Amino acid sequence: MKQTDTKTLILDVAQELIQRLGVNCMSYQDISNSVGIRKASIHTHFPRKDDLLAALLDRYSDRFLRMVDGILASSDTPEVKLRRYCGLFETTLSSGDRDKVCLCAMLGAELKTLNHPLVERVRCFYEANEERLVTLLNDGRADGSFRIDEDVQTTASLIFGLLEGGMLVARVRGGSDQFHQVIEQLMQFIKV
Amino acid sequence: MKQTDTKTLILDVAQELIQRLGVNCMSYQDISNSVGIRKASIHTHFPRKDDLLAALLDRYSDRFLRMVDGILASSDTPEVKLRRYCGLFETTLSSGDRDKVCLCAMLGAELKTLNHPLVERVRCFYEANEERLVTLLNDGRADGSFRIDEDVQTTASLIFGLLEGGMLVARVRGGSDQFHQVIEQLMQFIKV
DNA sequence: GTCTATAGCGCGATAGAC
DNA sequence: GTCTATCGCGCTATAGAC
């Protein structure tokens, strides 16, 4: 049973700050205050800010996609699987101070301020999610639970865009409650 | 015939910078370089940065909602009106360097870094848009062109969330082409 | 690995001449 | 209204002691 090391604590705090404020309002000083370490010491673990962001994105992407794959591998029906997938985004929005969005939603919005290696990571996260959605939608179409016309990829883009982008909008209006209803209506559109 | 004054030029450049990079990467120095004026002179027109942002949001909101009201007041069918409304967002994404999003989409993402008077303006923009959408959807339901179940307000939130939030996601994947297809599929969901 | 100290830069904002 | 000059701050990053 290993205790949480400093590196992990730094990543935890950085992630929370970005999810709330954005990458350009997350500073080594802010992390320093929360972790209880001097800001110069952070450079021991992550020499440059891009190193920290790359490590953070890799960790986040791994964790998130592992949860998604867990859902896909379950024995649930496609409809339940899709609901559970949407639930991942709902949980992010409603957890803690209720003002956190997906890490890659914030980074996507601030994409033009990121360096190339980070841009690629965000893009990969989006693509990986849409790939999983395509699989899920095809399964649901095969067993007759979803009514999807021709272009499954576009439907996947629609769903992901609504979840990932819509949570940024939902936060402005004040809530995960409204976000939940929107997702429910999306399900009605897709269900046969 | 009045020529474009400095104040307008400053707002134009500031808007472009925010739509591309976000509010926290828009500086008086950047504006200075593009407008061809020293950065100290900008304070003559907008003493504090929040003054500039407030004026910018008011101008943007007025212009955008005037276009929306123009669409609503036209003699088009509800379906055409909705397509034209979606077109406003498509145009933003495909104009210029193809990497601009709605001003209030960026500000919504960075909401937690804004001061209260600005937060209210973003919130009002969202509400005003959803109000117009509710009207449009009710019209379409009345004349039988839209098949919407019970909760028109939720459908409006869904559409606005997909347009406003989805354009942030679409920009990452590379395009207004994909965004256009997503909107087309949304129309298929809504049409009777 | 953590600390103190500091370099070097960009930022928003102000003062005062023209 | 625009300019030059400057202040004070926060930022990323580095150097060197412990």
UniProtKB/TrEMBL annotation, chains A, B:
Residues 27-46 bind DNA. Pfam families: TetR_C_13, TetR_N. InterPro entries: Homeodomain-like_sf (IPR009057), HTH_TetR (IPR001647), Tet_transcr_reg_TetR-rel_C_sf (IPR036271), TetR_C (IPR011075). PROSITE patterns: HTH_TETR_2. GO terms for molecular function: DNA binding. It comes from the Bacteria. Residues 4-64 form the HTH tetR-type domain. The keyword Transcription applies. Keywords: DNA-binding, Transcription, Transcription regulation. This is TetR family transcriptional regulator. It comes from Mastigocoleus testarum BC008.
